[in-house]
């Protein structure tokens, strides 16, 4: 599914929105912010966002899962260390965090004259500068309650923004009072959020970089992206066709209904199976494909059409793949085919208006687009015919 379609599906408005920050822009920004934030906190990102294609990422492989577990344990250890550190050092850490987040004029107050305020800062939001009073509670078992929220408000000399930071948690009364309308707003940061923010901004932890290889399934699915290096075809002519992917044969070859075959292939991926489990199910359904490498090659048609992604050794449907699964709408395949498959537009224009199948084949053989082999051109022609894209 494209970003525009996802906007409509989520009820975020029309892509014709005239505002500067329309719903499509807001959605992309929200997804990218979520990706950045989770990655910085040592968590797997939840969405795949490539161009205008959005997919829900599958579970991680064994290595990624182990890394995420390790990162979670480090954050628990960091929280434990914050519980045990010197109170003054803890205030300094909170002050450094505020600076990293973007607060200005951050100062730790003198212990003898803080009046209940441990750190002072200025929150900047564009043209607005808001004085911010911060109180920290290095509490382990006891939760911060409503009295502490009210105490912070009472200690503020002027209306602005209050921030309560604790290594523990907050009572329900404290949360309700912090959000009370008509009162000075108080932001609450519990131990979990505190550690997440510290990790996100590189405080209290160090990071290492490890290269983790994964097979580039898009390349093997026939990606025509040549942005990183020029590629010439066998006769030395550069490819002139438009599109992102070349096609492979479906498991039933030229026989059978392409739409039905793709629907079956999409069904097999509905539960985000591991690639090994998917291939086993694929061979069980298409018994003529006896070799694993051949099964894997042919199932990559789903990647070429944007119906699925293969990542972390799992097969995961994209949003357009799930929409196809819900209704087997051939129009989704038509749109994906014309937008993603190399040579689709050129072959279609070449044979448009030619009623005879044999005449179409002759035309494609004689005048196939520059950069396409005869096999590729005939395959694209068969797909165009199957998907009823040629009148």
Describe the structure.
This protein has 391 residues and is α/β, with parallel strands linked by helices. It folds into three domains: 3-58, no CATH class; 68-200, Trna Endonuclease, Chain: A, domain 1, CATH 3.40.1350; 217-386, Arc Repressor Mutant, subunit A. The protein contains 17 helices and nine strands. Strands 3-4-5-6-7 form a five-stranded mixed β-sheet, with helices on both faces. It has a two-stranded antiparallel ribbon with strand order 1-2. Strands 8-9 form a two-stranded antiparallel sheet. Helix 1 packs across helix 2, helix 3 crosses helix 7 (191-200) and helix 10 (275-285) packs across helix 11. The longest helix has 23 residues, at 62-84. The model is unreliable at 7-21 and 227-240 (pLDDT under 50).
Main beta sheet: strand number and arrangement?
Answer: 5 strands, mixed
- Annotation, overall tally of beta strands: 9
The count of domains is: 3
CATH superfamily membership of the largest domain, which one?
Winged helix-like DNA-binding domain superfamily/Winged helix DNA-binding domain
- Beta percentage is 5-15%
The value of Rg in angstroms is 29 Å
Written as H for each helix and E for each strand, in order along the chain, the element string is: HHEEHHEEEHEHEHHHHHHEEHHHHH
Structural class: alpha/beta
Strand line-up across the major sheet: 3-4-5-6-7
CATH architecture of the largest domain: Orthogonal Bundle
Which residues form runs of ≥5 with pLDDT under 50?
7-21, 227-240
For the record, what CATH class of the largest domain applies? Mainly Alpha
Percentage of residues in helical conformation = 40-55%
Distance between the termini: 26 Å
Number of helices: 17
CATH topology of the largest domain: Arc Repressor Mutant, subunit A
């Amino acid at each position: 599914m494209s970003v525009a379609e996802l906007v409509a599906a989520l009820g975020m408005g029309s892509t014709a929105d005239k505002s500067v920050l329309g719903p499509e822009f807001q959605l992309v920004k929200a997804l990218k912010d979520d990706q950045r934030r989770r990655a910085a906190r040592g968590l797997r990102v939840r969405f795949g966002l490539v161009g205008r294609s959005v997919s829900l990422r599958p579970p991680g492989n064994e290595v990624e899962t182990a890394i995420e577990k390790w990162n979670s344990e480090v954050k628990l250890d960091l929280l434990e260390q914050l519980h045990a550190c010197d109170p003054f050092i803890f205030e300094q850490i909170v002050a450094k965090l505020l600076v990293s987040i973007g607060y200005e004029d951050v100062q730790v107050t003198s212990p003898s004259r803080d009046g209940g305020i441990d750190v002072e800062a200025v929150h900047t939001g564009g043209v607005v500068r808001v004085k911010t009073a911060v109180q920290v509670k290095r509490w382990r078992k006891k939760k911060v309650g409503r009295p502490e929220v009210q105490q912070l408000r009472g200690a503020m000399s002027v209306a602005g923004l209050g921030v309560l930071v604790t290594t523990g948690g907050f009572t329900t009364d404290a949360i309700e009072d912090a959000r009370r309308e008509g009162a000075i707003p108080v932001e609450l940061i519990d131990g979990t959020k505190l550690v997440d923010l510290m990790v996100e901004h590189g405080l209290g932890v160090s990071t290492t970089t490890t290269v983790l290889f994964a097979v580039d399934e898009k390349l093997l699915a026939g990606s025509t992206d040549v942005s990183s290096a020029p590629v010439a075809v066998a006769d030395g002519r550069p490819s002139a066709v438009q599109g992102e992917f070349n096609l492979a044969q479906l498991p039933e070859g030229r026989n059978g209904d392409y739409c039905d075959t793709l629907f079956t292939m999409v069904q097999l991926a509905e539960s985000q199976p591991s690639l090994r489990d998917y291939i086993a199910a694929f061979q069980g359904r298409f018994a003529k494909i006896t070799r694993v490498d051949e099964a894997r090659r042919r199932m990559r048609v789903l990647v070429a059409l944007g119906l699925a992604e293969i990542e972390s050794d799992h097969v995961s449907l994209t949003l357009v793949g799930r929409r196809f699964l819900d209704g087997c709408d051939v129009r989704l395949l038509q749109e994906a085919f014309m937008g993603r498959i190399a040579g689709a537009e050129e072959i279609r224009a070449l044979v448009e208006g030619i009623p005879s199948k044999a005449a179409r084949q002759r035309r494609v053989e004689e005048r196939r687009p520059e950069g396409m082999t005869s096999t590729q051109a005939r395959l694209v022609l068969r797909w165009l015919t199957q998907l009823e894209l040629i009148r």
